[in-house]
Design goal:
Layout lengths: L3 H34 L9 H9 L4 H25 L9 H26 L7 H13 L4 H24 L14 H35 L8 H9 L5 H24 L3
């Protein structure tokens, strides 16, 4: 018979593999966005571009499969939180379970995309193309623009929440800070704040573009990760704002690796 301890250990392994895979993608997207900021050509700064970059590395095909399997682990971890509750005293509350359910869907889609790319059966399109295609299909439904607008608003609000929670260091309760030295703890907190704010900014901006597409009844106005990142370079701050966001995404990738080591599961 499987013991509770074994179940907890299994969930911890799955969670840590998932966090490590997430970190790989964010570091690569950040690097690609940095190249865009400095005018270099190359893969688009999104998940597909990151996977294309991985395939150019030694054992690239193996690495892509590893990332895909890691995202499956991420999905399974979040699904376990829906079924059994997350860690902590409030882990079984309805709100936490619903949040975990949303994350489960998100990582299921991401894992399917990466594994399809690895198998060569799909997942080759950029995030910009996928965003426009999905927006166009939803807009064709009854009340489509309203659904698109609500989805965009939800993404934008989610991005703001991510950024605010990162700025308030809400992630600290999930960390085994007692196992860290003072210097390591401060470094991890720096990664969590800067990386989380940058990640939240990207989500908020992407959601804003979806809302704008709904208001204009024009799916072409919806932007994926690559176009959203490029939009930062078109602000009055110019490419330097994109440099900051790109660096922040790379730092969030490092933070994900730190979470893979020290997160309470």
């Amino acid at each position: 018979m499987r013991t509770a301890s074994q179940g907890g250990t299994g969930r911890a392994v799955v969670a840590r593999c998932g966090l490590a895979a997430r970190g790989v993608l964010y570091v690569l997207v950040g690097v690609l966005a940095l190249r865009v900021a400095f005018g270099e050509s190359g893969p688009e700064a999104d998940r597909t571009g990151a996977l294309q970059e991985l395939t150019r590395q030694p054992l690239g095909g193996f690495l892509v499969w590893a990332v895909g399997i890691g995202l499956v682990c991420m999905m399974l971890w979040r699904l376990s939180e829906v079924v059994f509750g997350a860690g902590g005293p409030d882990g079984g509350k309805v709100g936490r379970r619903l949040a975990s359910a949303a994350r489960t869907v998100f990582y299921a889609v991401a894992a399917f995309s990466v594994l399809s790319f690895a198998a060569g059966t799909g997942g080759q399109g950029s995030s910009d193309e996928q965003s426009r295609d999905v927006t166009a299909k939803v807009m064709e439904l009854p009340g489509g623009p309203w659904w698109v607008g609500l989805a965009g608003a939800a993404i934008a609000v989610g991005g703001v929440v991510i950024a605010v929670r990162a700025a308030l260091r809400k992630f600290r309760k999930h960390l085994k800070t007692e196992q860290m030295s003072e210097g390591v703890r401060k470094a991890v907190e720096f990664l969590g704040v800067t990386g989380g704010v940058a990640r939240g900014a990207v989500f908020a901006a992407a959601g804003g573009f979806v809302v704008y597409a709904a208001a204009r009844f024009d799916p072409a106005e919806a932007k994926g990760v690559d176009d959203t990142l490029r939009a930062f370079a078109q602000t009055p701050a110019g490419p330097w704002l994109l440099v900051l966001v790109a660096a922040g995404l790379m730092l969030f990738g490092l933070f994900s690796w730190a979470m893979a080591v020290w997160r309470r599961v």
